[in-house]
Amino acid sequence: MNEKLKITIFGGSGYGGSELLRILLFHPNAEIVLVTANEHAGKAVGEVHKNLFGLTDLRFSVAPDDLSTLDTDVAFFALPHGQALNLIPQLPANVKAIDLSGDFRINDADIFKEFYKLEHTALDLQKQFVYGLTETNCELVKAANYIANPGCFATATLLALAPMVKSGLLTGKIIVDAKTGSSGSGAKAAANTHHPQRMNSFYAYKPFTHQHVPEIEQHLKEVGEFTSDFVFMTHSLPVSRGIFASCYMETTVNLTNEDAQNIFKDFYKDAFFVRVVEGSPDINWVKTTNFCDLAAHSNGKQIAVFSALDNLVKGAAGQAVQNMNLMCGLEETTGLMLVGTNP
Amino acid sequence: MNEKLKITIFGGSGYGGSELLRILLFHPNAEIVLVTANEHAGKAVGEVHKNLFGLTDLRFSVAPDDLSTLDTDVAFFALPHGQALNLIPQLPANVKAIDLSGDFRINDADIFKEFYKLEHTALDLQKQFVYGLTETNCELVKAANYIANPGCFATATLLALAPMVKSGLLTGKIIVDAKTGSSGSGAKAAANTHHPQRMNSFYAYKPFTHQHVPEIEQHLKEVGEFTSDFVFMTHSLPVSRGIFASCYMETTVNLTNEDAQNIFKDFYKDAFFVRVVEGSPDINWVKTTNFCDLAAHSNGKQIAVFSALDNLVKGAAGQAVQNMNLMCGLEETTGLMLVGTNP
Amino acid sequence: MNEKLKITIFGGSGYGGSELLRILLFHPNAEIVLVTANEHAGKAVGEVHKNLFGLTDLRFSVAPDDLSTLDTDVAFFALPHGQALNLIPQLPANVKAIDLSGDFRINDADIFKEFYKLEHTALDLQKQFVYGLTETNCELVKAANYIANPGCFATATLLALAPMVKSGLLTGKIIVDAKTGSSGSGAKAAANTHHPQRMNSFYAYKPFTHQHVPEIEQHLKEVGEFTSDFVFMTHSLPVSRGIFASCYMETTVNLTNEDAQNIFKDFYKDAFFVRVVEGSPDINWVKTTNFCDLAAHSNGKQIAVFSALDNLVKGAAGQAVQNMNLMCGLEETTGLMLVGTNP
Amino acid sequence: MNEKLKITIFGGSGYGGSELLRILLFHPNAEIVLVTANEHAGKAVGEVHKNLFGLTDLRFSVAPDDLSTLDTDVAFFALPHGQALNLIPQLPANVKAIDLSGDFRINDADIFKEFYKLEHTALDLQKQFVYGLTETNCELVKAANYIANPGCFATATLLALAPMVKSGLLTGKIIVDAKTGSSGSGAKAAANTHHPQRMNSFYAYKPFTHQHVPEIEQHLKEVGEFTSDFVFMTHSLPVSRGIFASCYMETTVNLTNEDAQNIFKDFYKDAFFVRVVEGSPDINWVKTTNFCDLAAHSNGKQIAVFSALDNLVKGAAGQAVQNMNLMCGLEETTGLMLVGTNP
């Protein structure tokens, strides 16, 4: 590939945008031609994201009024829910789009409305979107023009559940106890991320009603026979980055620990960014990286699977670039060798 | 009561001992006559627990060789597992004992051995111990001479499960996803509490095998009809203090949220130290206090109960003093008005 | 004293108000008759400050329009700068007032205007205010009707500098490198207290221009001969509570470490809430308490004094109550035995 | 360059070794041929540094008994103080050595003994060492065979002081108030890095006696005319990574803020890894990177310079690789584009 892909990022000032910039500025096959951030238009990227100071001369722009003439190969949308819904239909046909919001993840207009409190105004276009959980949808992603990039909780949960659902061994309900770091709430200060309180805090929120539930259920039905009751509970962790999901299932037959681990090792044998680990994953080992670490344990028929990832990378910008790589015929790992640190 | 209770604390240098000292030094009906800490013998308490500097002239002593002449009314044991087992049988008959370790919690010698890797050498004495979950065992505690003070995870879990088990409405398995702060690992530095790593960490440990499982199951059978499968999973949180348990159950009948909350409000209507809250409890609001905060949610037949407490207070030293108060005919809250802070 | 003091708190919803409530609700000689918080008027105190849930039935009120008939013995003002300036002049003459803001700390109207960007509209009343650094101004406080409660940074700094200034041994400039926890920014969420960033953050702010500089200089001139150049620098720490000030001075004569410590031990021999410690103080040991811990070190003529306190207690609400106790003829420590914790 | 440099790392299991591995495993001109860690010999690198799991098949080895036949181009020593002293003299003459410990930083044997409590047994070899503060010693580093890599505190302090010392404008004493994250204490758990206490902690340590003082003073004399009294104070921050130094100086002439900033912009105009920023640097923006961020402020003749870096990268492993790059004729930034993150 001798020419670089021309990249546009809509919504460059939030944490999703911040991480897209961190990755794509150093991606060998990408060149960012436009990054929008209306409130910061004109400012240097390195002035807003001070980690990037000295590393780029790029500046934020206002979003163009007319997208139909946008000269770009790939457009990323890292905007609040409801905005990509209006923008992506305006893109020229040759532009590949990757949406990090929930706007195009849900097939069913009623369910979308129930969870996002919005009418879906682009249902035909939605049908062309591929759900970008790269590891389970690899071939569809390669052929896609439009990607609905999975939610952070959904990614952690689906990577833990998909091998078990695929195995056909499950019975009874599935319970997922999921926890997220504070960056999951976005870059704007708010009461629930006020440092004096949050640093000593752990609590549950949105019991039974988190908006990632329908995309998880929808995709599990694509992965295998899925009819289980599904209980999904979200909690807030006093760390900056990271999601940890503890997933409780039951199997129809007895499994040893090794059996359980092997189901995962087998399912992910070609997946560079999924690591099956001993004992427990730890968000410490995946923070700032595109890895999802998994471990499975069995107590006979009771199975626990633990999943850890960085909500902003494998749970957002990293997976988005992973999808871009596949859509554009690049090696999956290009630009994504984001090495974690100890400590 | 014109005379103060004479108090001995065995094991005053750990976090359990530290919190017993914080509470009992200011308890209006208590006077600490002896506090042991072999490695710190001779040192001022305020030199080891620097929070207490300027507040007491007490010094640590070596444990006496002969306990049979101990002149004390109440003896607290805040020692590593396996030590109270040898010491409590030596006490004079008139000394009330409260053990914060697991040594006397388990009725069944085989189960004790399986989880604690120790032969139980005082089985007859064990039969005289009352399990000191104050809210469920109030009357037995009042009459007791020996208290097995519940584990921190067990307290958080049992306070969340007892009302539901008692209600007779449960069916199917119970799953408890529990998380603890780093002080649960004790006062000695160790790899899993090394700050550079722990501060960004969240992970699971001891899957399916935590030693608090048997005391939880044993006490639930005392509370009501309990035959459920029970899955208990422990995780490490990057905070200093606090336990949060998310408990998943199923009922035979549909419950509204309000129904679920009312089960708890009713069960704990006389329990000063259990607060039924809206939404979710948060360890931030219970840290350093003797409160356990609970909230129940229902999604029809799927029930989630959240429980938060301070592992060193309601999960250890605070509950121990609460038990002492009842055993000695004092008001339950005496010396325990430990007011939390915002933030 | 058989009757309780009637207490009014203006501004009960911020962190200063939160801590006043925590202390005064359990103060044996105080009864809160009114606590204002316009945005929360009508709400239960325990709904806003969830640490107090179950501990009080008090509710927030709107501030009364007419203060001239306020039936209270002591009024605390925990309002943003500029509000007490208008309210305190309206109080009946028999009401003692303690202002936690900077409105009445500065004697010089020009300096006040320079640092607070406000015209001072109550200069005559200001002359009746006593600067409430309890340890240095004890006798004046006892006789005062109006207290300007010192700033948090000012308290930590002045307690470290006063004994040295008083000693008459200083020469050359004084440099104070001060650090505060995030609760110093108040209860409202803001960019600089956004958890995802703040938890890994340390930075300086307001170089050379912090508004506590003039009150420090003004009070040092009351304490002794003070003509030094004074450099004061503020930094932000990623903890919730605590101030740590490192104070660098030079003496005209050589001092040993012991000499330096003795200056402090002597100066504070009657001060219960100042502890002179070995090595270094640590905010961990003073958090949630009314203590200021100090340590002095000498390298010949170069002196370093370290000072640690809780910005919301000794640096605000705790010192305010300490002042109230003295003004009202109570024991200085009444209601202030707020025992710290380990950990 | 068609062949890769053969690299040996002595001491691969600590945090210095961890970061050397993170960087050198992905350095385009380096191949790690040996990494030692006696206690982990035989184990996979990715088992000890779990961030590297899946990224390398490298295993730890025991250190060879005989170094004289070591087949390597560059040897890094990330060992406790006192060990490189014995090992580096055994290396073949053609091996370039970079020592991250303090063993070869100090020219004066008496001072070395005073601060490191060790006899220096390789004084002749020490004379061949270049002090590897890359930005001030660039030309000497290029020609060096042996590098004494600066201490983390020394790097932060010297980068802040060197431009001012070089300017010739200083008068009077210099005071440096320095703060470090917990990873500065190394990978082994210890009381001062025990999470329950450290997370709420800030304290000073080693007042006036830190072992980085002599290397700072020694190098400032190489940079310019340096005769100032120098007060250096170290403190512990409750973050994992990062050093922040607040440096207080006085100039003989009045400087504006802009004058002060310009001294730094000019001095570092060719230094990629030093960024002169507005306001204050923040450890949040340099963590995991090789950048040192600086800001200078003036209040007339009182100057404050703030310096922030990652103690394990620019303060250790990153600077070591930066030195290797120069010693081996590579571009200074090769393998060091470690991009920070927001948040």
**Full CATH superfamily name of the largest domain in chain A:** NAD(P)-binding Rossmann-like Domain
SS class of chain A: alpha/beta
Tell me the major beta sheet of chain A: 7 strands, mixed
Parts with pLDDT < 50 across at least 5 consecutive residues of chain A: none
CATH topology of the largest domain in chain A: Rossmann fold
The global form of chain A is globular
Largest interface: A-B, 47 and 47 residues
Rg of chain A, Cα atoms, Å: 20 Å
How are the strands ordered across the major sheet of chain A?
8-9-7-10-13-12-11
Rounded to the nearest angstrom, the distance between the terminal CA atoms of chain A is: 37 Å
Kindly state the number of beta strands of chain A: 13
Helical residue percent band of chain A: 25-40%
Named CATH architecture of the largest domain in chain A? 3-Layer(aba) Sandwich
Order of helices and strands of chain A: EHEHEHEHHEHEHEHEHEEHEHEEH
Structure description:
4 copies of one chain form a homotetramer. Chain A has 2 domains: 5-149 and 314-327, 3-Layer(aba) Sandwich (Rossmann fold); 153-311, Dihydrodipicolinate Reductase, domain 2. Chain A contains 12 helices and 13 strands. Chain A has helices at 15-24, 45-48, 84-87, 109-116, 123-127, 138-143, 152-167, 195-198, 213-223, 257-267, 283-286, 313-327, and strands at 5-10, 30-35, 74-77, 96-99, 129-131, 146-148, 170-180, 203-205, 230-236, 243-255, 274-276, 292-298, 300-309. In chain A, the strands form 2 sheets. A 7-stranded mixed β-sheet of chain A has the order 8-9-7-10-13-12-11. Chains A and B meet through strand 7, strand 8, strand 9, strand 10 and strand 13 of A and strand 7, strand 8, strand 9, strand 10 and strand 13 of B.
